[in-house]
Structure prediction request, 335 residues.
Amino acid sequence: MTKQNDYSNYLKERFPPKEGFVKRITDLIGEVEAKKFFEIAYTKTPTSIRCNTLKISVDELKTRLENYGWKLKQPFEKFPEVMIIESELGPGEVGKTREHLLGYYYVQEISSMLPMLVLKPEVGDFVLDLCASPGSKTTQAASMMENGGTIIANEISLGRIGILNSNLERCGVMNTIVTRKEGVSLCEKFLKKTQFRFDKILVDAPCSGEGTLRKSPKTFQMWNPNMIKKIAGTQRRLVDAAMNILKVGGIMVYSTCTLAPEENEMVVDYLVRNFDVEIEQIVLPLKFRCGVTEWEGVSMDKSVGKCLRLYPQDNNTDGFFVARIKKISDEVKNG
Prediction:
């Protein structure tokens, strides 16, 4: 405990939060919860892994890892592939095992697993993962789809494509085509050149990363409201373009690892106001808070309240946001 306290105190001194960020979090959840938020922000996130059922069963993997002396917890009865390592491991130990090198499990924070659990890709689906690297969610989708159907995994950065390809290969993914294109351009190309439409689309958008403070304290220093506004514009363009290549009746999941309403609910509200869509209720075995429907004088559609916010102090995870959006028709409301 002393070691943890020393680590937390060091981070607090090295990466103090900016006044504007403290005010925003306080405005979102109140002083009492904000205090809890900033306390946990300076602690490490528990190590969690996801069993890759393309290569091994959950029970066999659990047995193998317990033979190393690891203490494992499976927090969700419905999702036994999700495991938390409760043992104190040495630096890099979780990535050095034979099982990891063989792709039997993927080191992935629980919040990062949520988008695919919400999207629910199935065998036979055509799925687009618009911002795919490093591949945690793509490999998860392939596992859920049992390597059936087709996934387009898109990434703009050549360097990150290398990481994506490496993870796909290690995990035995065989139903995925990797593309390198700016997200909006890729969607526009599908729209103009083909009649093809996707059953399901994940837009796990680039964001300001407010939810990742526990593993990236530098985010405290990088935070600024101008960056949030700029990123929100990019996010709106991505979801706009992606919605145009989603089938009627298809599902889009929009997610970020930030807590800024401009990057979350306001982006979803943009879709509600411009497309014929329905925000669907999400049920997951975690403590969530509803989406905000008003922020800094801006009122949003009430259905945006069905979006889910994950705060670090509620489940000992990173912060996260997720929305499940169903396309009702091709009608464009304000076009």
